[in-house]
Amino acid sequence: MTNDQILAAGLPKIEAAYFQKHPKRFLNKKLIATLLIFVPSLSGVIIPFFTVNEHPWVWKTTGCIWLVTLIVTVFLAYKGYFVRGYVLREQDITYKKGWLFHSQITVPFNRIQHTEINHGPVDRMFKLCQLDIFTAGGSSSDLSISGLDPEDAAKLKEYISGKLSHYA
Amino acid sequence: MLNISTPQRQSKKIIAFYLFKSIKGLVFYFLFVAIGTRSMGEQAWYRIALISFLTIMSLGSPVIRYIYFTFHLESDELIIQKGLIQKERKAIPLERIQSINITQNVVQRILGIVSLEVDTAGSKAKELEIPGLDREFASQFKDLLQERKEEIIEVFNVEETKSTIVENDVESSIIESTDTTANTSKKETTYKNPKDNIETPILKLGLRDLLKVGITQNHFKSGGLAIWVVFGSWYNIKEILEEYFGDWLEQYSFENVISGTSIGLAVAAIIAFLIFSVIISLLLAINKYWDFSMVKKGDDLEIKMGLFNKKEIKIPLSKVQILEFHSNPLRKLLGFKTAQIFQAQSTNNKLSHVSIPACTVAHQRVLQHILFKQPVEETEIELHCNPWSHARLRLYVLSVFFIPSIGAAIYFEQYLAIIPLLLLMTLLIYTAFMYGKKSKIIMDVDFVVFKKGWLFPKTIISPIFKTQAVEKWRSVFLKGRREAHFKLHTAAGTRGLRYCKESQLSILINSINNLVISSKNKWM
To answer: Which residue of B254, B392, B410, B514 pairs with A8 in a disulfide if CB–CB is 3.0 to 4.6 A?
Structure first.
């Protein structure tokens, strides 16, 4: 067993690490989930189309709004997939996400309180799940890594809890 | 020594306190009745019956509440039971207690009782409050809780070291036994002298200091408060007043007042407002910080203050997460700052930060030394933000309001009005620019220090090993400019600085993160 002194300056940088991508079906899930939200709201266009005959501009404007928001959300979901990723290192975990608003947050294992695996119905359909990592810094510094393969998530959780028992 | 192993009731005076609370609630019902019965005629009897029922209930409930509120210690847990119909039992393990505070409001003061608040950070359980204890009993109780807590933690540590020794040195059983005996002897000694309870006074504020503090408060805030109180209560009383003094009030209707106004009157009103605000801030400061004293006792910081509502706050030094110093132009002139101590937050805990007014430079240094041991040494990394980005953001935000109003001025051909608008806008943008120019992050081996602000400068000191997570945040617009915001998450909230150079920020984040990883200190 070695117990070399760790010097902070000698430790590697986050940027040098390789960011792990999510499985491709996460993108599919995202796109389909967005469509699922948008299909019911299409009624806001269809109903005026049949009922408000004397003012055609009503369904035209709602239709335009619907189309534009749909395109924007799909675009953001698509773009977001490619900048999303996590890095698991010996002592910490880093997660980055978001295209429009990009954030990259790093939590050392010795500050993690507990971890959780969650999956909703849509997640299960795509064989995905979400790993939540809680710190003492309140909700602002909690990590939730959504769209993981259940096996990977279980492994990650195992690895992190193994590290946690070190510090407890 | 107190014996509270059996369920105890509070002081009997608490009945009067509960009674006062119920009466306060009842006053509104009576007002309701007084107004309601005049207009209702026949059906008023039902109301009166309802009200009298409520009255009897609320007069009887204090006694019941007194009888069914008990607290006691049971196998290292503080247990509170209350309620007749809806029973409630709360238990707090003593080692989870974060801080024990004694507070007293005006009514409690008259009755001579205090309330004891037990706060547990991190756990989801809401803090406990025992609202009616005799003062002496409360302070003894507080000491007892503190002592028991320390004993338990001590025993924990001894057991832990024992087990690690057993794990590591299985072969050398002789060393092990000597070690454990050494530990147990240590345990005994700690039982005998429960920590050094030496009191070192740090800060005491006299009346002159309080006047200084009051004068340098944020007057706009207290002025706003005054206006809010006047208007808020005005709408409440108005209806009752109109009923009785309707004719007399008629001549002071809104239109009459407005039409009578001239510029002179407006100026007088502004001056009156300013004087009023200053007086209110003075009174607020004196009420809040009267007889302020800060004492270091053992490993805790004890703060006492308050004129009408007395407060005694106890902060364990290890729970302090962030120290901030706030200033403003007036305070700079008088040479002091306000310190704010941030503890680890539990869910909706109102005592999460304690402010200490009137800290001179010497006090600041002492406070920093006590809280964090080391001073901030020479800087390793200094990170500035881009002032132009701050100015640009301000320009975007302001243009939302200013462009339409300038447009309106042109439309109504009031070209003179454009000049003050533009002036105000440039001034506000300039302050944003200066804010960016004066803000920076300094990092040494032990601390991250934020220096933020121009007119209202703020220094935030956060020990690196208390950091929970570090974050880099940017919108897609900042990507091209190679800038990003920095966020430092601690158990006492998030602090940050916006618009830093991304490359430098990465260096900062890496070094903070690596220092957190290699630090062996417990953050709490």
So the answer is: B514
Residue with tokens 């006090």: B363
- Give dist(CA A38, CA B361) in Å, integer: 60
Tokens describing residue B373: 């041991």
Please report whether residue B96 resides in a domain. Answer: yes
Task: State the ipTM, two decimals.
Answer: 0.87
DSSP B8: B
* pLDDT per residue as tens digits for the range B188-239: 433 434 445 677 888 888 888 888 888 887 777 777 777 776 666 666 666 6
The answer to whether B517 contacts A91, with C-beta atoms less than 8 Å apart, is yes
If asked whether residues B30 and B112 sit together in one domain, one would say yes
Same domain for B122 and B239, yes or no, is no
Tell me the CATH number at B65.
2.30.29.30
Task: Measure the CA–CA gap between B23 and B16, rounded to whole angstroms.
Answer: 10
Q: B24 and B100 in one domain?
A: yes
- Contact B509/A14, CB-based, under 8 Å? yes
Task: Say if CB B83 and CB B68 are below 8 A apart.
Answer: yes
Mean pLDDT of B512-518: 88
- The residues facing A144 across adjacent strands are A132
Q: What is the pLDDT of residues B328-373, one digit of tens each?
A: 888 888 888 889 988 876 554 455 688 888 888 888 888 888 888 8
Chain A residue whose CA is closest to B346: A138
B511 Cβ under 8 Å from any chain A Cβ: yes
Q: Are residues B216 and B272 in the same domain?
A: yes
Q: Report pLDDT for B354.
A: 84
- Rounded to two decimals, the pTM is 0.75
pLDDT of residue B315: 82
Residue B149 is assigned to a structural domain of this protein:
yes
How far apart are alpha carbons A66 and A44 in whole angstroms?
9
Dist. CA B362–CA B368, nearest whole Å: 10
Do B141 and B190 lie in one domain? The reply is yes
Range of the domain at B266: 207-289
User: Is B450 inside any structural domain?
Assistant: no
Q: Is B514 on the interface with A (CB under 8 A)?
A: yes
Query: Using CB atoms and an 8 Å cut-off, which of residues 66-105 of chain A contact chain B?
Result: 91-92, 99-105
Query: Which position has the higher pLDDT, A56 or B254?
Result: A56
Asked whether the beta carbons of B331 and B216 are under 8 A apart, the reply is yes
DSSP B359-391: E-HHHHHHHHHHHHSSPP-S-SEEEEB-HHHHH
Q: For domain A84-167, which architecture applies? A: Roll (2.30)
